[in-house]
């Protein structure tokens, strides 16, 4: 298991502790930022897609703050940058059966 895979496991655990998630996807995008100033710090770049009822009634800024609060122990040592896509369950269209 790579260092970033281990990080993602820790992030996943903390996000499930903070939210009643019906969907979570964390993508390591660090390779897209190789050579950037922030890459030298050791913290990675991650894209997070999550769906949780706790986001009902919250605007985008409040949702981002909630995610940052859940991951605060990992910033900046393990996380240099996050791209957050946080949704309430009613904002996600059901997938059609194939």
TrEMBL record:
Domain of life: Bacteria
One Pfam family hit: BolA
SUPFAM superfamilies for the chain: BolA-like
Biological-process GO terms, alphabetical: iron-sulfur cluster assembly
Protein family membership: Belongs to the BolA/IbaG family.
PANTHER family linked: BOLA-LIKE PROTEIN 1, PTHR46230
Protein name: BolA family transcriptional regulator
Taxonomic source organism: Polynucleobacter paneuropaeus
Lineage of the organism: Bacteria, Pseudomonadati, Pseudomonadota, Betaproteobacteria, Burkholderiales
């Amino acid at each position: 298991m790579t260092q970033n895979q281990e990080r993602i496991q820790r992030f996943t655990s903390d996000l499930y502790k903070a939210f009643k998630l019906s969907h979570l996807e964390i993508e390591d995008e660090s390779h897209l930022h190789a050579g950037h100033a922030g890459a030298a710090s050791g913290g990675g770049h991650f894209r997070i897609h999550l769906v949780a009822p706790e986001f009902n009634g919250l605007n985008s800024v409040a949702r981002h703050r909630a995610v940052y609060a859940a991951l605060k122990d990992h910033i900046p040592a393990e996380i240099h940058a996050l791209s957050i896509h946080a949704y309430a369950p009613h904002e996600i269209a059901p997938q059609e059966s194939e």
